[in-house]
Amino acid sequence: DKEVRAIFLRLFAQLFQGYRSCLQLIRIHAEPVIHFHKAAFLGQRGLIENDFLTKVLNGMAFAGFVSERGPPFRTCDLFDELVAFEVERIKAEEGNPPKMIKHVRELAEQLFKNENPNPHMAFQKVPRPTEGSHLRVHILPFPRINEGRVQELLQEGLARAQGAPPATRGDKKCVVPAGPPVGMFM
């Protein structure tokens, strides 16, 4: 699954290579509007007559892509790195299938790590109930909760939380790298 996703990630990185140089930030309104200059993108790549890419750029999915990935200051991800820094590597791998497969596997591994930051937790299985478990009549009643002990545990947890440093999320916003200009991909 991750290798198929990595192949599509590479495909879209190649397809949209240099898209950031065709983004225009319009600050007329209170909320900035991001516009993608399609004609410049297609013209600089020499693909004005390409029906497939024209239809992709005119689609709603691409409009969502531009609005989501257009802001110059946001959390960067694997796609941004591919578009900005892996241009030469992807070009060099076009004629070398073993290198391309190696890169796809590296991307797939990175996708897996992004989705499963704790590898030992990724494959936790819930045990299947034993056969006939639903027929048992000797099930013990659920024990009564000791309210005093619950309050003690809550107070201990609050005391620990107050002394601990504030939890921060791993996603840090940064300036999105523009990558090479579109004209380089002719």
From TrEMBL:
Record-level GO cellular component terms: cytoplasmic vesicle
Xref: InterPro entries: dDENN_dom (IPR005112), DENN_Domain_GEFs (IPR051696), Tripartite_DENN (IPR037516)
Segments forming a coiled coil: none
Record-level Gene Ontology MF annotations: guanyl-nucleotide exchange factor activity
Domain UDENN residues, every copy: 1-76
A GO BP annotation: regulation of Rab protein signal transduction
Domain of life where this protein originates: Eukaryota
Protein's UniProt name: MTMRD protein
Organism: Loxia leucoptera (White-winged crossbill)
Organism taxonomic ancestry: Eukaryota, Metazoa, Chordata, Craniata, Vertebrata
Gene expressing this chain: Sbf2_1
